[in-house]
């Protein structure tokens, strides 16, 4: 009887011990909550109810290589850095451009994509044909983007902001704005479905896209991500992703 009680007792302790070990393992799992905008094709967008895109595939591949579970959270672009600073996000990947102003708030990885920005108009609207011609006009941009910053440099321009890129395009088509400024790859995606809009001006950006982390908190992880970005470019996986999303011939 005593022997039976001992076995039962040991079994109970074994179960308890196993449960604690499992909990401990769960605590040790590495996870990154990564913010994105979700309306910036082909970098991030919704397809059949799922968040997909170049940025999504890229960060998930990096996470897999470094042993991190990646949880994506979609929210308005202008809320991403505040959410990062508030600790609601661990990182941001959302076609976010490296600028000096942003570098004062966050730390960036190496740039993973460089592009240009384009100025769009409704076909036939020859009243807007240069940056200078936008003086006194209404220009649509996505709130919180580098395009908003660039638009505000134009003399006497009336900058109209919106959270969603699709709404900016709709405003242009409906005559609520005279022009729209977008990253060129994103503009081309919208032009495929909207043949009544066209590019009338294009310019190179002095900055590229990178992954953002809160200032001064993830220097070692950023270093590891930079190493992974280099490996992905060297082993061909980066080029595969570029081809998958039609970016290979459009990178500058």
Automatic annotation (TrEMBL):
It is found in: Cell envelope. SMART domains: PBPb, PBPe. This is Extracellular solute-binding protein family 3. Belongs to the bacterial solute-binding protein 3 family. Coiled coil: none annotated. It holds the Pfam family SBP_bac_3. One of its GO terms (cellular component) is cell envelope. It comes from Leptotrichia buccalis (strain ATCC 14201 / DSM 1135 / JCM 12969 / NCTC 10249 / C-1013-b). Residues 31-249 form the Ionotropic glutamate receptor C-terminal domain. Its main location: other. Signal peptide: none annotated. Keywords: Signal. The keyword Signal applies. SUPFAM superfamilies: Periplasmic binding protein-like II. Residues 31-249 form the Solute-binding protein family 3/N-terminal domain. One of its GO terms (molecular function) is ligand-gated monoatomic ion channel activity.
